[in-house]
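Can anyone check this?
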Amino acid sequence: MQHLGRWIDVRCHAPKLLPVKWGIWRTHFCDFQPANRMGGDLVMFAYDQDPRDFPKLTLTPRFYVVFDSLLILSSDPCLVSLMCGTREVSWLRLPNKHFKESLCALLRHATTLRHTTLREHRISQKETELANREERVRQREIAISRAEETQCPSLAESSDDEVPFGSTVVFDWPLSRSEKHLRLVNALDRQRIAEVASERRKRSGAASSRRFSAPATSRARVAG
């Protein structure tokens, strides 16, 4: 049940003109329906004619009021006040108790619907904020990873004879501290072995050059 309509005696004035209790009772056809984003739970449209009698026409209401609660005014349970927060917006003389119960049920349904919509909207906002935050973190991690790969190339990209001692190695992630330490020690050992081998080749080459050049020097001395 989304709508509730009935001919009702209404007492209402614009808030800036007169208080509601000074108003004049007038009979209007009142259509109650959920107030979608109008600042309340229900809205009452007051017409001078029954819109159901003119299905092909769109009637303009005489006025409307938005409210979120009902307040019984006297010993008569059918005399109620429509409240928007703490402000009194209109008085109604309902036709019977059954209509009052139906109006209260519609109001409870509209209140639950508004709270549910508000909660879903807040949850959607939180999910959007969380997704944006995760995306920013992911982009930051990608940028950091690219910067580390640019500044710290792996050993596989450099030659065995020209690997500088103490160069940084890019490890796979995630690794424990002991695994990282073991890989670093192995890399340093390979670097030391490469340096020792290079130094030995240099020394061997220098000794060979001296050995082959010695006879030529001695013949030059004899000739002199």
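Reply from J.R.: I decoded it. Confidence is low (pLDDT under 50) at residues 158-163, 216-224.
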